[in-house]
Amino acid sequence: MDALGHHIRLRLEDDRVIAPGPENRRVVTRVVLAQARREHLLAFRLVDTHLHIEVGCGREAAGRLAQRIEGSLRKRLELRFVPAYVKLIQDQQHLNNTFRYVLDQERHHGLDTDPFHDGSNLPDLLGLRVLGQFTAENVRALLPRITRRDLLGYLGLPDLDGSPIRYDHLEPAAAAAAGLGELRGSTSEVVAARSAAVRVAGDEIPLGHLAGLLDVSIRTVQRIRSLPVDERLVVAVRRQLWLRSWAEEKGRTAEDARGGGEKAELER
Fold first, then answer.
1. Are 170 and 214 in contact, with CB atoms under 8 Å apart?
2. Does the pLDDT value for residue 161 go beyond 90?
3. With CB atoms 3.0 to 4.6 Å apart as the test, which of 16, 42, 85, 183 could cross-link to 9 if both were Cys?
């Protein structure tokens, strides 16, 4: 019988952090998603010094995939890797456990450097990003017991369609939804992301404020409003906005709680 899949782990020669910062993490993400489409990619997670990948393919295909990813990242970010670790996945339970292990890497290592999972395919599985939504089809086919609730658990959220939304995060939300480091220039991907952001904002924001949030002119916003838009990207931008709004509120609540505790201590 063919192998169910393999678990790949990549590390650099000097064991440094592979991709510090969200922009570099998104470069890694784009490389993995571009290279692993044929190998039934199920999950990947970049965590400080290493990159974990789970694929539903044989040993030779997994090895070639690791080499392609290493070669692409050598060109894009001038990174040099040690030979990849590639482990056979033994059975369905192992496939499920590896999926959870890969996506849970930051908690496993006690880190919180990538809370929005720019360096994983969790956003693609939850409709927060459009680049790798093919991985959701792979998970439905090969890991049918993985539920949406399971996936939301990695973010600590009950859902991704709540309110209110804070539009201050519109530009980074749109960039994240498109898998871009930032919204600069006029490439087709940047224009598509801006168009989705403008659609999400609708009439909620004055035109001048919206232009400021996206760092473009009012005339550009007016022109963008007449362009066709990818509805999947609109949903992804809205969910990225909600995720950031929720995280900001959670941080404010935690700060208030700490402040309240300190005040109570002082009053004793």
1. yes
2. no
3. 85
> Do 171 and 213 form a contact (C-beta atoms < 8 A)?
yes
Same domain, 193 and 74: no
Angle between helix 231-267 and helix 170-178 axes, rounded to 10 deg:
130
| pLDDT tens-digit readout, 119-129 | 999 999 999 99
Q: In DSSP terms, which residues pair with 52 in a beta bridge?
A: 9, 45
CA dist 244 and 119 (Å) reads: 16
pLDDT at 261 over 80: no
Query: CB-based contacts of 225: which residues, under 8 Å, 6+ apart?
Result: 198
- Going by C-beta distance under 8 Å and a sequence separation of 6 or more, which residues neighbour residue 170? 197, 200, 201, 210, 213, 214, 237, 241
| Helix pair 231-267, 188-201: axis angle to 10 deg | 60
Whether the per-residue pLDDT at 258 is higher than 90: the answer is: no
* pTM: predicted TM-score of the whole model, two decimal places: 0.91
Full domain range(s) for residue 212:
160-268
In angstroms, rounded to a whole number, what is the distance separating the alpha carbons of residues 35 and 33? 6
Do residues 137 and 254 both lie within one domain?
no
Say if CB 155 and CB 122 are below 8 A apart: yes
Residues 6+ apart with CB under 8 A from 160: 126, 127, 128, 152, 239, 242, 243
